[in-house]
Amino acid sequence: MPEPACAVFDEHLTEYDFGPSHPMAPLRIDLTIALARELGVVGDDALPVVGASAASDDLLATVHTPDYIEAVREVSARPYEKQLAYGLGNDDNPTFAHMHDASALIVGASVEAARRVWTGENRRAVNITGGLHHAMPGNASGFCIYNDCAVAIRWLLANGASKVAYIDVDAHHGDGVQEVFYNDPRVLTVSLHETPQTLFPGTGAPSEIGGPDAEGSAVNVAIPPGTSDAGWLRAFHAVVPQVVAEFAPDIIVSQHGCDSHADDPLTNLMLSIDGQRASYLALRDLATTVPDGRWIALGGGGYAVLDVVPRIWTHLLAIVGERPIDPETPTPPQWRQRVHELSGRDAPLRMTDAQSISYRDWTDGYDPATWLDRSIMATRKESFPLLGLDPMP
């Protein structure tokens, strides 16, 4: 009997490494897997771990241009020669040896997750090293070299999926995935992100609704800076379940960047571990509404490397594996010791920030005096009618 879920991972996936001063430190992956193993979340008696192979150039070319793929190969071979073409070699995307191989392996891991779920080998799969949603067909962007999310979705479409819902809860807009599928009515892209007025990449306004052949296929909720758990969950539940239900996808692909946390150094949202965990449970529940519960979960941003990323992505692994962890669970002493040795700081003692996850439901009333409610209503007015939904409360 096939396992209901799996995690796609091997140690080589941590070789996606922009260097010691870069925010996207592979240590966040190492500490997540270590914490998940010590808590019994992954392993032979829990969520099984499977490997993957690097994506071929042909597979990458389903999203990326051949000249861009060749450029990544060239800078991988000569990473110390200063180049600034194709978005490579700048502060966001510094070049490193074997960049192509490391990036192609992340894509291969996300496609392997897609393959296993689509073929029925598993109902759910997770790749925490994936979620590189900013990469464009012809250039790198925002710490992302190849767009594993988009390549995995293209693979699903090529292998029989008629409709795919992509849901992005990273603090940054999922601009690369939206760009690839903006005029494709088979793909619904939904992104909840900090408003483009205050955060990179400066896109994701509610008025971005899809191309002329796919109006309504892009749904954007621009969250005000400073929004905490209650407001973020209000926005999620006011938009996401309705548009996904109306679209009726064959499968859900979700991106779980955890840089919406209050401690993240690069963003201005104020979520807690508890609020982020609630969003993962909501996405799990949404996945139960699609045929066979097909769900592919990917990682993404997250730059509070020690305190936040390992805990919340361990929750994600546990939720995908249908063995959610009690938020009050203590973090293992051995893991805390490792964090202290690496940083000189005390690690979190529990798998929670001890925050309430209650929120006011949208059906309880719309308050036009608040920036949050105006943002939610802007999305509903732009997108809901195109999907046959009533935008009003």
UniProtKB/TrEMBL annotation:
InterPro entries: AcuC, HDACs, His_deacetylse_dom, His_deacetylse_dom_sf, Ureohydrolase_dom_sf. Residues 22-318 form the Histone deacetylase domain. Pathway: Ketone degradation; acetoin degradation. It comes from the Bacteria. The keyword Isomerase does not apply. One of its GO terms (biological process) is acetoin catabolic process. Keywords: Acetoin catabolism. One of its GO terms (molecular function) is histone deacetylase activity. Belongs to the histone deacetylase family. PANTHER family: HISTONE DEACETYLASE HDAC1, HISTONE DEACETYLASE HDAC1-RELATED. This is Acetoin utilization protein AcuC. It comes from Solicola gregarius.
